[in-house]
Structure to design on (604 residues):
């Protein structure tokens, strides 16, 4: 039985391997909800989801229901979605507009900054009842970066700036692609679930090792994947001569600290990227920022980025992906297409359409990943084999000057080890 | 009735086909899917045909909002090639399905284009790897006359749980 001491937790993680129990033990999952999701900076949503005062979006931080809402003064608030009377979830829809939020149960009414402004049958309140003590609680800390809203359920801890660190560049890279310098997550969401631990998805977003095998069914006879970006005729070269292609292997991954990481771009024939829709977009961007800057912005830099522990952003077919743990062996993932504000609608429509075939629940790519996660979770029921190997490239990393970060091959497991370093930092310390 | 872009349809009855002909066609389509004859299923679509499964109720456009499926011929070809690929893990073992089509009704006739809009209900039971699932929805086929039969110019399936979370969906509905 796990008692959560430094000693016990520490024994689950070794330099090149982790215990199967981090994926299968319900006690460890409970501890993760307290110690990791209970205090790390978590991605909540994007400001563009709530453009007008009273607009709200409901989600979960870990398993805890929260409301992201825009107040009258235009500020974005993140409040616990839990009535301060007897505990009912106050807002029940995924999104909407509610300048006043009223609880279904006994009718308490809250303002969009959380203040309690109405209690029916007020004469029944106890003598010292003070409405100021009964507002919907704001999350202890909230910060935004280029519209990305993050919150921490703990009052103390690493500052947001220190936490996000070098990953700002990855958000910038995406946001700069919009002629207006702004992104919008307003084109709906793909929701898929899998019977597996949440970390399987987190580890997978930077895993370039699996692609030729896990996604074999998306690779055509010439070894390339289907086209995933507007203007591409085909996707990346993944396989040649029955082996992982050289172009695929030269990609790199970066261990950015705090569990974050990213993988460099997929090698595509970038000079060949062209279509009327793409050209119109390039022209729209150049008209705003100049041709030289536009060229620089459009030079592909990253494939996928992970901002640990609950969000990844993809630079290839652009989207934001939020990982939501539900139980030790059940996870929901939400995938939001990104609309580039100020870009011709045709390129945004093309991005939305391509995301359907890469990351919807009925997509060509994501379905085989979910099957992998499901089978890992099944395989890890094998109790006689304790360890999961994450040792690829151990000790082989070099140091990247530009990002000041350890760098390894994208087909190695450097970034997974980085995730478990961060995991241990959260987990070994009582919340 | 959910909105379908059928503004240009007239309401003149079309005498060349009996309602039973449409129903037979839908049954034929369902059977191809249940028998995993995906390439033949794709062949039922016109070259400019579209297969659409929206991701929210009442979704007006596939271009400003995500969809579960929005396949034109290019995407459909990739999808079918993948379904035929020996290493499609999410179909190892394959799904077994049975479609039940009901309530087929001719909604609109557009004589000048030789097109008919058919409404029907669909229930698909899917079994795979110890797990049985149920999909149910309202579907709209825009059928284009071709000789004595039809091809599908546009098929839309409005699933009742379209905005819910799904486990992997590998086969078309
Ligand atoms: S629980 Fe909300 S008003 Fe009573
Ligand atoms: Fe994958």
């Amino acid at each position: 039985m796990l008692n959560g001491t430094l000693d016990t937790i520490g024994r689950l993680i070794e330099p090149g391997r982790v215990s199967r129990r981090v994926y299968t033990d319900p006690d460890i999952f409970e501890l993760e909800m307290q110690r990791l999701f209970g205090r790390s900076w978590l991605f909540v949503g994007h400001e563009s989801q709530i453009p007008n005062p009273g607009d709200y979006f409901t989600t979960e931080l870990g398993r805890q229901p929260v409301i992201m809402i825009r107040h009258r003064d235009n500020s974005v608030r993140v409040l616990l979605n839990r009535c301060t009377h007897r505990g009912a979830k106050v807002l029940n829809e995924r999104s909407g507009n509610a300048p006043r939020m009223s609880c279904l149960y006994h009718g308490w009414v809250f303002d969009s900054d959380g203040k309690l402004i109405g209690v029916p049958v007020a004469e029944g309140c106890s003598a010292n009842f003070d409405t100021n003590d009964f507002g919907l609680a704001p999350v202890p800390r909230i910060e935004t970066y280029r519209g990305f809203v993050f919150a921490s359920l703990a009052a103390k801890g690493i500052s947001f700036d220190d936490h996000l660190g070098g990953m700002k560049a990855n958000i910038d890279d995406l946001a700069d692609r919009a002629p207006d310098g702004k992104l919008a997550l307003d084109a709906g969401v793909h929701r898929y679930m899998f019977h597996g631990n949440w970390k399987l998805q987190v580890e997978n977003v930077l895993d370039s090792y699996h692609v030729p095998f896990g996604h074999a069914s998306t690779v055509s006879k010439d070894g390339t994947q289907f086209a995933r970006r507007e203007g591409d005729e085909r996707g990346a070269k993944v396989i040649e001569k029955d082996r992982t292609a050289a172009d695929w292997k030269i990609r790199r991954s970066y261990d950015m600290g705090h569990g974050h990481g990213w993988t460099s771009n997929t090698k595509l024939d970038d000079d060949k990227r062209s279509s009327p829709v793409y050209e119109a977009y390039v022209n729209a961007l150049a008209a705003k920022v100049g041709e030289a800057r536009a060229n620089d912005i459009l030079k592909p830099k990253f494939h996928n980025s992970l901002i640990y522990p609950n969000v990844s952003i993809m630079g290839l077919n652009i989207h934001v992906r939020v990982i939501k743990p539900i139980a030790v062996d059940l996870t929901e993932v939400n995938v939001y297409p990104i609309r580039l504000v100020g870009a011709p609608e045709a390129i945004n429509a093309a991005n939305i359409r391509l995301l359907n075939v890469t990351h919807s629940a009925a997509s060509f790519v994501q379905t085989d990943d979910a099957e992998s996660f499901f089978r890992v979770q099944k395989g890890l029921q094998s109790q006689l084999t304790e360890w999961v190997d994450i040792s690829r490239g151990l000790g082989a990393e070099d140091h990247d000057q530009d990002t000041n970060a350890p760098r390894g091959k994208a087909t190695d497991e450097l970034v997974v080890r980085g995730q478990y370093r961060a995991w241990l930092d959260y987990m070994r310390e009582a919340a | 009735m959910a909105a379908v872009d059928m503004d240009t349809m007239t309401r003149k009855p079309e005498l060349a086909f009996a309602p039973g002909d449409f129903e037979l066609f839908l049954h034929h389509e369902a059977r191809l899917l249940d028998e995993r004859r995906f390439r033949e299923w794709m062949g039922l679509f016109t070259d400019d045909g579209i297969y659409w499964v929206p991701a929210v109720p009442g979704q007006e456009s596939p271009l400003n909002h995500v969809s579960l499926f929005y396949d034109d011929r290019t995407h459909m070809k990739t999808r079918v090639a993948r379904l035929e690929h020996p290493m499609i893990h999410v179909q190892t073992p394959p799904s077994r399905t049975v479609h039940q089509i009901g309530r087929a009704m001719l909604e609109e006739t557009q004589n000048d284009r030789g097109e008919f809009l058919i409404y029907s209900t669909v229930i698909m039971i899917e079994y795979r790897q110890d797990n049985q699932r149920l999909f149910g929805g309202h579907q709209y086929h825009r059928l284009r006359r071709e000789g004595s039969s039809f091809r599908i110019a546009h098929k839309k399936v409005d699933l009742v749980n379209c905005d819910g979370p799904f486990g992997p969906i590998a086969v078309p509905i």
Summary: Residues A 204, 210, 214-215, 365, 369 surround fe (ii) ion (ligand 2) (CB under 6 Å). Chain A is about 25% helix and 25% strand.
